[in-house]
Amino acid sequence: MKLETLLPLGKVDPGLRAPETPLDLHTVAQDARTIEALGYDGFVVEETKDDPFVVLALAAQATTALRLGTAVAIAFPRSPAVTAMSAWTLQKLSRGRFTLGLGSQVRAHVERRYGVRWSAPAAWMREYVLALRAIWDCWQNGTALDFQGQRYRLNLVVPLFNPGPIDHPTIPIHLASVNRRMCRIAGDVADGIRPHPVCTPSYISEVMLPAVREGAARSGRGLRDFAVAMKPLVAAAPDEASLQAKIRDARARIAFYASTPSYLAAFAHHGLDALTAEAKLLSRAQRWEELPRLITDEVLHQFVVVGTYDTVGRRLVERFAAVVTHCEFSIAVRSESDRERLAELVREIRSASSDAARARLVEARP
Question: Is pLDDT above 80 for 16?
Answer without folding.
Answer: no
